[in-house]
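TA notes, week 10

Several of you asked for a full example with nothing omitted. So below is the full record: structure tokens for the whole chain, then the designed sequence directly under it. When grading your own attempts, check the secondary structure regions first.
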């Protein structure tokens, strides 16, 4: 079946396009992008209303889908439903499942469940170490062959410098990045919030920014030593950004990501509007306004490569305990686009094209997966954004199984109009704006 997306503003930074173009899709591929493409007889025309933006499918390279083992928090079906509702055509999922994704059996299970759900593409990330216990390297060749696109011990750092050295060496042979949860355990030492004024007033044990930056410096040095690629996950501290910039100026293969929550919120949320709200407990923690401002500067000047959500669903009962005892993490898939459009694009921090680079072009490049481009021949993974849509975040309407977000009730400008994966419309947000015929499911 051929579809012609006619008349939207196409923002496709990988091909230098930002303007009104038509996009012709045939089956699961993009066939042509151009101005005023002819309408052939067998083509279904979709008039894209002016004001909507057609861009390459968004890719979230850091999510927790929790399956296998923690299906009470999220499943691959509910997680990918949340992904497409959030405009993501693909997600890369972290290996801290039960059992850990440290072998082909688990990777294959994840891929099978993703195929059954048949919504967003799912790229598994394999563990660096067996059981993520920091002792023995996982079988990296086996993980690669089974379909893993990267390695990480996320949730915790790669335990030792030697293990990280070996991981970078082996991952390099298979052209995979090592995604690092940068944290020095001795400095974190049971901390639950950013070390600063607000944590002190609440009597919470703090985690200094240096817990993150010290580990980032170790890993950047090891990437330089080995020539491997290290990707700094969920960067939160200004010192870490300095470390990444230092690595980049030396030509080290280092990239980094920030989450929407670290660029929108600060540790003031520990006290306002609800003190001890466990929906603002995540790791790394929300930091000081100086850190948040540094992340915004890094987004604007190109030092930050990716925006990723660190979607970390937890069950209501797990989060409704004392702050110290609650698990770290918040959901992110269904709020990222609205937060980024409102707080980054409309606020004048970055352009829409730069946002697409951060949410699509660069994650595809770093993971070495298809996508990030609307070039002829590319998979027809397309996100249609409604940058001016008035959105009220509503936990009750979310597809995710989990409700742990601090953004419930927020009013934001910008949302998702539709998500197309491999030529299939898998999500339609504003049905009255975009009249697709029934998707070819
Ligand atoms: O807040 C977090 N939650 N940070 C992590 O690194 C892990 C994640 C989780 O798995 O819940």
């Amino acid at each position: 079946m051929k579809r012609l997306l006619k008349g939207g503003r196409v923002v496709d930074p990988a091909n230098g396009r930002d303007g009104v173009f038509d996009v012709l899709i045939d089956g699961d591929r993009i066939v042509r992008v151009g101005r005023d493409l002819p309408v052939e007889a067998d083509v279904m025309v979709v008039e894209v209303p002016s004001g909507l933006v057609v861009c390459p499918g968004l890719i979230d390279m850091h999510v927790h889908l929790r399956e296998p083992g923690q299906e009470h928090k999220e499943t691959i079906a509910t997680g990918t439903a949340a992904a497409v509702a959030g405009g993501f055509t693909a997600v890369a999922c972290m290996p801290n499942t039960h059992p850990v994704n440290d072998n082909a059996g688990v990777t294959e299970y994840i891929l099978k469940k993703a195929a059954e759900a048949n919504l967003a593409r799912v790229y598994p990330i394999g563990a660096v170490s067996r059981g993520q216990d920091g002792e023995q390297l996982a079988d990296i060749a086996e993980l690669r062959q089974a379909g893993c696109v990267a390695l990480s011990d996320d949730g915790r750092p790669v335990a030792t410098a030697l293990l990280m050295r070996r991981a970078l060496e082996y991952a390099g042979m298979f052209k995979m990045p090592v995604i690092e949860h940068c944290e020095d355990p001795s400095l974190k030492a049971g901390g639950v919030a950013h070390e600063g004024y607000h944590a002190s007033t609440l009597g919470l044990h703090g985690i200094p920014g240096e817990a993150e930056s010290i580990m980032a410096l170790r890993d950047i040095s090891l990437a330089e030593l080995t020539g491997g690629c290290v990707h700094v996950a969920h960067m939160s501290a200004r010192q870490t950004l300095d470390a990444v910039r230092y690595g980049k100026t030396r030509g080290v293969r280092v990239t980094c990501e920030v989450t929407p929550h670290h660029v929108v919120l600060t540790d003031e949320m520990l006290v306002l509007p609800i003190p001890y709200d466990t929906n603002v407990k995540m790791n790394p923690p929300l930091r000081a306004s100086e850190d948040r401002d540094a992340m915004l500067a890094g987004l604007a000047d190109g030092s930050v490569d990716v925006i990723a959500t660190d979607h970390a669903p937890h069950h209501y009962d797990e989060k409704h305990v004392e702050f110290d005892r609650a698990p770290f993490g918040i959901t992110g898939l269904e709020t990222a686009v609205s937060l980024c459009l409102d707080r980054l694009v409309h606020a004048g921090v970055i352009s829409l094209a730069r946002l697409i680079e951060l949410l699509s072009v660069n994650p595809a490049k770093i993971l070495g997966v298809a996508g990030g481009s609307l070039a002829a021949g590319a998979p027809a993974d397309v996100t249609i954004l409604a940058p001016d849509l008035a959105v009220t975040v509503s936990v009750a309407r979310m597809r995710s199984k989990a409700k742990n977000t601090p953004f419930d009730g927020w009013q934001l400008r910008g949302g998702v109009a539709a998500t197309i994966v491999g030529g299939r419309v898998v999500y339609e947000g504003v049905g009255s704006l975009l009249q697709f015929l029934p998707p070819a499911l």
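Residues 64, 96, 154-155, 181, 282-283, 310, 312, 327-329 surround DOR (CB under 6 Å). Use that as a sanity check on your answer.
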